[in-house]
Amino acid sequence: MTIRPLLYAFLLAAASLPGLAQAQAQETATTNRSTDLKDKPSFFDGKALATLPENTPVKVLARNSGWTQVETAANQKGWVRVFHLRFAATVEQSSSGGSGLGGLSSMLGFGRPKQENAKIATIGIRGLSEEELKNANPDVAQLAKLINYRVDKGTAEGFARGNPALKPQQVAYVDEVAGAPPQKGRR
Predict the structure, then answer these.
(1) pLDDT tens for residues 136-147?
(2) Of 67, 81, 103, 173, which is the most buried if we count CB atoms within 10 A?
(3) CB-count exposure of residue 49 (10 Å: 0-12, 13-18, 19+)
(4) What is the pLDDT of residue 7?
(5) Neighbour-count burial of 122, counting CB atoms closer than 10 A to its CB (0-12 exposed, 13-18 middle, 19+ buried)
(6) Which residues does residue 118 pair with via DSSP β-bridges, in sequence order?
(7) Cα 140 to Cα 43: distance, rounded to the nearest angstrom
(8) Beta-ladder partners of 117
């Protein structure tokens, strides 16, 4: 056995040991608006742990559908909506496929030529299928709760007149703006 394969095996083993391998950079992001840090990835069921101001740097820990688990500089962990984060696209220069001993292995003839690897964050959120829509069941209790919030036109106008911060405005319905004939039904 020649020394070259032994040296190569030693270098591979050494590169995998903690402390010798170059640390992989954690993916980072920045909030693009003020957003809630939630205890779980749910808009309705998640409890707000804190409010992160716009431009808050965070470390990405995990992803779950439209949510990203993050850690703040103050070591607070929680979930943020992925659309409230801005990810930096990065380009790395590598000479050895990522090991911390890239320069040494290149010198010995084991390295690969330099290449650029682009890392770009993308978001994929699944919608509902046609079958899921057909099999959907209304939540009668939530609908009843929603109906309880309803007020008649006179009550709404009275509230608006009683609030000096509100100013009357005429707003055309969508079909009137587009020039289409009015739709049948309630407005």
Answers:
(1) 888 999 999 999
(2) 67
(3) middle
(4) 56
(5) exposed
(6) 91
(7) 20
(8) 92
- Which sign, positive or negative, has the C-alpha torsion 142, 144, 145, 150? positive
CA atoms within 13 A on the CB side of 133: 4
Distance (Å, whole) CA 62 – CA 84: 15
Residues 6+ apart with CB under 8 A from 29: 57, 58, 60, 68, 70, 85, 86, 87, 88, 121
Apex 183 CA angle, 178 and 187, nearest 5:
100
In the chain, which stretches have pLDDT less than 70?
1-25, 89-126, 173-187
Tokens for 132? 């899921």
CA distance 56 to 68: 14
**Angle, alpha carbons 61-65-70 (nearest 5°):** 20
Residue reference for tokens 């040494």: 104
- pLDDT for residue 110: 54
Tell me how far apart the alpha carbons of residues 87 and 116 are, in angstroms, rounded to a whole number: 19
